[in-house]
Amino acid sequence: MPRDTAREQPQWLFTRHSALTVRQLLRAYAVLCLFSTAIALAFALRGYWYIPVFSFAELALVAIALLYYLRHARDYEHLALRDGVLVVEQVSAGRRQRSSFRPWCTRIVVPEGPRQLIRISCGGTRVEVGAFATPERRRQVAQELLAWLPPLDREGCGAYFGP
Question: Which of 141, 147, 150 is nearest to 110 (CA)?
């Protein structure tokens, strides 16, 4: 039974789980740089000039990997029912994609397998969400969405999208 959407506006948030904060990551990289530079300097003083070259190449590659990690550390997916519209907002590497769906013609496909995502479609728009959630959480959110949305009205939607 659908709830009264005038009072409650449900929302779901899927975020990427990051083990380290930005500050912790920068501190760890600074310690790595100090340690690696000290060893490279010791070898350079003994006449082994190729060691600092490889050391700085290693630090550059680690910096590139950490920048990639930081770029995606704040990725998220946000679903919300606001004023009778299902709004899906996905942020990946700082790029925001926002999709709006009419609730009466929105089709929700509940994921059945462990790698399947929640598929939301209406008209010609289709998105998949739940990449940062466990399979159980994806199924739970899909079931909650189905409970909040009105029954599918195939006449008001235009084309019907199968599974």
Answer: 141
Tokens encoding 143: 């079931």
- In angstroms, what CA-CA distances link 101 with 5, 43, 80, 113, 158? 15, 62, 10, 25, 13
**How far, in Å, are 35, 53, 71, 132, 160 from residue 66 at the CA level?**
17, 20, 8, 20, 44
Confidence of residue 74 (pLDDT cuts 50, 70, 90): confident
Q: What is the CA radius of gyration of the chain?
A: 24
Q: How far is CA 61 from the centre of its chain?
A: 24
| Token pair of 32 as six digits | 């790595």
Q: What is the DSSP letter of 83?
A: T
Q: Other CB atoms closer than 10 Å to residue 149's CB: what's the count?
A: 21
- DSSP character at residue 157: T
What is residue 1's predicted lDDT score, i.e. its pLDDT? 44
Separation between Cα atoms, residue 119 and residue 130, nearest integer Å: 9
Q: From CA 54, how far away is CA 39, in angstroms rounded? A: 11
Is 37 a residue whose pLDDT tops 70? yes
pLDDT over threshold 70, residue 106? yes
